[in-house]
Structures are given as structure tokens and as C-alpha cells.
Amino acid sequence: MQAKRIYLDYAATSPILPEVIDYISEIAKTIFGNPSSTHAEGRIAKSFLEEHRKTISSLLKCNSSELFFTSCGTESNNLILKSSVSTLGVKRIISSPIEHSCNLQCFKWLQKEYKTQVDFLKVNEFGQIDLEELESLLHDNSQKTLVSLMHVNNELGTMLNLEETGHICRKHHALFHTDTVQGIGFFPYNFSELPIDFASGSAHKFYAPKSCGFAYINNQNILEPLLHGGSQERSVRAGTENLIGIGAMSKALSYCYADLENRMTHLEQLNLQLRSLLSKQFPDILINSPWHASSPKILNVQFPYFEGIELLTIKLDIEGLSVSGGSACASGAETASHVISQIRPDHPGKAIRFSFSHLTNSEEIERCVSILAKVIH
Ligand code: PLP
Hints:
Radius of gyration: 21 Å
CATH superfamily of the largest domain: Type I PLP-dependent aspartate aminotransferase-like (Major domain)
Mean pLDDT: 94
Shape: globular
CATH topology of the largest domain: Aspartate Aminotransferase, domain 2
CATH architecture of the largest domain: 3-Layer(aba) Sandwich
Helix content: 40-55%
Distance between the termini: 25 Å
Strand order of the largest sheet: 2-8-7-6-5-3-4
Number of helices: 11
Structural class: alpha/beta
Number of domains: 2
Bound molecules: pyridoxal-5'-phosphate
């Protein structure tokens, strides 16, 4: 009998929880109206939509009027970045070179179309920025500036201190956008108290279906839509709302936060176990994820033995282990990681990202290391 496959790529995406699948089936059977219709079916759909907006906003501690449903994290970040420039008059963006490609590609587009000035902060070998450098760049705030920095890096797990960063932005009158796609459902957020203006979330990262997300836009800022059409989502995002996705996202997020402590403790144990087993088996590895300042869900490890990571991940896949050598891009092909190229310019393409969930067990971690040993040695 073939051994069960081991999936350690939860930062790429996660399976839908069985309880959430049950809920999806219930929604599909009972809610079919268009929330914009005024008849009874429409009103039922509208109240379902608003009930889930309230659930999610209470989990993230913000006003429900600050939450806008979108099709994914990519759309949310595009909406925030492009509309900040087109609506709010942002002329300059300060970011880092290791943001998710959906943000980096927006910056490029904004540079070309709007002549937006984009300044990148330096990052160290763990992908951490220097807040003093941010502060010194913000000293010249003659132009309206948006700082865009992700909360949890999707390849390294490295985390940003949102409080400190946001306070620096506030002090210098800069807007602050943080891509929270890898943090939502794994860390508690109080959006109302955090000094942030914009954030983003994506349902498929926390055990709900793909193609559903949200943008948090605080009440101080009003953005123009990217998609023009009807007046859904208070005219910030046209298009009939994805009720099944939104209901499932709300349910999955409620499960995440109801069991947050247990899940995080479990992730920490798995992360520590893998760090320790890998260090014993491969003494030459370098760990790219800083232990005290990263999400326990992600462990990024640099293997000094391989020139090309693609071959290694293919061999691991054949042996039944799913991990990532870069970020899973839209084409489905793994490309050399722009993040690793920044933090280890001499050794790009040799890092593997392991990412776990509460569904992962320690026996899978042991088997993962045995498979790596077999393939590498
Ligand atoms: N931002 C980060 C940090 C991500 O990890 C991802 C997905 O990998 C995205 C944005 C894009 O989210 P989506 O897949 O919902 O478009």
C-alpha cells in the first residue's frame, strides 16, 4: 500500500474544513436570492450577507462598514494600492522588495501609469526591515505617502511589528497598508486599535474556498472602485457578492479564532520539531525564518547542497511530500524566489518552505525528514 502523501504547503492554500463544507451545502440549499433585490429572497440574502460581515468584523474588531468583500487577496491589495493613488492622491509608496507579487506588480504598474515614486527599504537575512530606515525615509514627507508592508511574509514567515510601524507612519502623516493575507486566522487583530489604514484577507488561506477575500479600509478613507458597475459593497466593489464564499469564510474564520491558542501551540511544536530534526539530519542548513519574530506556520530552510530547487521539489513530490521551493505563482510553475534572491543573493533557489496547519501531525514531520534524507543523501 502506498504511504499517505504529506502536505506541508498550507501557506500556498488550505483544504476546506469538513464543518465548513457542511455549511456551504446548507447555504447552497437555503440562500439563493440576490442581495441587491428588494423582494423577500433578496432581503434574506442581504441579511445573510450583513450578518456575516458583522461576524468577520467582530472577529477582527473593526466596524462592519470598514469591511469590503472581494474575490481574493490579490484583488484587495490591488484595490487598496491603485485606489490610494487614484483617489487619495498618494504620490509616493514606501515598501520592501519581498512583498507578495500582487503588491510588487501593482507598484510597477503605478510607477508606469501614474509616475508614483516607489522606495524600497533594505531587508536583512531574515527579511526584516529597519524601522529607523523607514523613519528616515518618512522625514521627507513633502509628497502624500503610503507605506505598504506585509504583516507575515508568505515565504519566510517573518513578521512585522504593526504597532510600531503604524505609529511611525501616523507620526509622519503617511497612510499604512498591511497585507495581512498570511496572518488572518492565525493571529488576533484589533483593526480599530491598530494604527493602520488598510489590510487584506483571503479565505483559502484559512480553510475556506478560493476566490473570496476582503479589504479592510478604515472609515477615514474612501476609495474609488477598481470594478465599475452596481453599487454593491457601498460602491467600492461592484459585482454580485459571492454569498457561499463569504458565508464559508466567516464560518472558517470563527473556527480559527475559537481555537486559536491550541492551534498556535500545535504549530509552534511542529515548527520546533522540524527545526530540530532538520538540524540533526543536515548540519549545514541555514534557517531563514527568525524563531522569535516569525509565524510558526512557516519554516523556510536553506539547503546548501542543490543548485536548482525545482529538481529537489519534484523529487520530493514523487516521494509523496508537497512543499514549496518558491511561491506558487499563477501559472502553477515554481519560479526562483524573489524573496530568497533578496535575503541570500549568493544562493538563490536553494530554499524550501515548509508550512503547517492544525491538521498536520508530528508523525508527518518525522516522515518528511526521512523523505528529505532519502532524496538528498
Ligand atoms: N498576499 C500574500 C501575503 C499571499 O500569501 C497571497 C497568496 O499567496 C496573496 C496576497 C494573494 O492572495 P490570493 O491567492 O487570495 O489572491
